[in-house]
Write a structure and sequence with these properties.
The protein is an alpha/beta fold. It has five helices and six strands, in the order H-E-H-E-H-E-H-E-H-E-E. The chain has a two-stranded parallel ribbon. Helix 2 (27-41) packs antiparallel against helix 3 and helix 3 (48-68) packs antiparallel against helix 4. The longest helix has 25 residues, at 80-104.
Length: 166
């Protein structure tokens, strides 16, 4: 089928790209650095300034990844370094999307605690009017912003609202 052939060729092209960088740093180095960016700027408590910084740092790290990645071995045999490089390449894309979503969500709710959105006693300040929805992001290609698709949630048996744990 043409769709299969296209997908297979896409995988081959990506493997060739990963193998041809021939840089100095293994994927594990980029993975650790990405984890630190996410921990520092998009963790349990986050703010607009930190999220914007995270996007910038992730983009810089992605650029470095594609210019200085080292994948020893070959693509024609079992190669765990190549597998990890592929996963880290995906993580770099996913991390930017997670931060973009966190930046777009202008409220605090559950694990989405935005420091700018606190109730009077410091608890999470929800915005159910705008964010009681299912959100899905559509990939639009390299260097293109993702498109946000939303579907409102309707609650019939549950009342939403702020929670105070004090």
């Amino acid at each position: 089928e043409p769709e299969f052939n296209q997908a297979e060729q896409g995988v081959r092209d990506r493997i060739t790209r990963l193998m041809s960088v021939r840089g100095q740093q293994p994927a594990s180095v980029f993975h650790k650095r990405l984890g630190k960016i996410m921990w520092d700027h998009c963790g349990m408590s986050r703010n607009e300034e930190g999220l914007k910084k995270a996007i910038s740092l992730i983009r810089e790290l992605r650029e470095e990844f594609w210019n200085d990645l080292l994948v020893p071995g070959s693509a024609g045999e079992l190669n765990q370094d190549l597998e990890k490089a592929g996963r880290v390449a995906d993580f770099l894309e996913l991390a930017e999307l997670l931060v973009t979503d966190a930046l777009e969500r202008r409220e605090s709710c559950g694990a989405h605690f935005r420091e700018e959105f606190r109730a009077s006693e410091g608890e999470a300040l929800r915005n159910d009017k705008e964010y009681a929805c299912v959100a899905a992001w559509e990939y639009k290609g390299n260097n293109s912003p993702h498109a946000l698709h939303r579907e409102d949630l309707v609650f019939t048996d549950t009342v939403t609202g702020e929670r105070n744990y004090k």
